[in-house]
Amino acid sequence: MSDNRARDIEQAPPNAPEAPPTDESPAPRRVLVIQSHPDDAEFMCAGTVAKWVQEGAEAHYCSITSGDKGTADPGLSAPEIATIREREQRNACTVLGVKSVIFLGYLDATLVADLALRRELTRVIRRIKPDVLMCQDPTMRFSGQRYINHPDHLAAGEAALAAVFPSSRDHKTFPELLDEGLEPHITPEIYIYGAKEADIWVDISSAIDTKIAALKEHVSQVGGGDPTERMYEWGRETARLHPDRPVDFGEFAESFKYMNLGS
């Protein structure tokens, strides 16, 4: 157990909100989205990102890999695929109004949540200083009888959560980052997307078309098909799963596991 165990317990602040934010809550000031591959966020959380940007938030993306294995075309090399997918991600972020995109350059399909990756993500968090972090769920290994989650998604989620707590917070963790001028930072709120156990729903009805437009920029992944109806149905189904859906809640939603670490 950590020598800081008492302080770790106290990390759940006494003034934490009694309930997660609602659609009446103000948009966060600065958002950092961490994903394993280009397009992960467009599928799972870009409606929420677009909504917050529309409401004045500053959003940043960090893609750990560039998706260099993401093709069925044996004639394309891994560097060629990475170049294509980075361009597609930048285009998608332009559609969403995202301020910056960081590519860490890890290889697709071999991601491991080791200390090197945790350090890289700690560096990004301390540099961006978000008040909301969005990341993948490291516990969502499979769903139903037809879906096995990509191991990179799990590794990205594990490394992101370890980076946000405790690594980004503590002076003594990765002290070399202090030499880079990167002081500790506490990220108050975490939205875990693709969550096994969601407990917060965001009405994205005002941003669903922006989400879909961003997803369409990933031409190498969606191909000649139009994802519009699929995304509409996902959004409707997610909204239907809201256990306490307000009467005025919109047609489309994204859901998350929400955590508040205080400030």
Overall description:
With 263 residues, the protein is of the alpha/beta class. The protein is globular and about 50 Å long. The protein has a 7-stranded mixed beta sheet with strand order 3-2-1-4-7-9-8, sandwiched between helices. 38% of the residues lie in helices and 18% in strands. The chain has a single domain, classed as LmbE-like (Rossmann fold, 3-Layer(aba) Sandwich).
Helices and strands in order, then pairings?
Elements: H1 5-9, E1 30-35, H2 40-44, H3 46-54, E2 58-65, H4 78-96, E3 100-106, H5 115-128, E4 132-136, E5 142-143, E6 147-148, H6 151-167, H7 176-179, E7 189-193, E8 200-203, H8 208-216, H9 219-222, H10 228-240, E9 253-260
Keywords:
263 residues, alpha/beta, Rossmann fold, 7-stranded mixed sheet
Q: Could you give a quick summary of the protein structure above?
A:
It contains ten helices and nine strands. The chain is α/β, with parallel strands linked by helices and 263 residues long.
SS content category: alpha/beta
**Helical content, roughly?**
25-40%
Give the number of helices: 10
From the alpha-carbon coordinates, what is the Rg to the nearest angstrom? 18 Å
- For the record, the count of structural domains works out to 1
Superfamily (CATH H level) name: LmbE-like
Mean pLDDT: 93
* Spatial separation of the terminal alpha carbons: 23 Å
Oligomer category: single chain
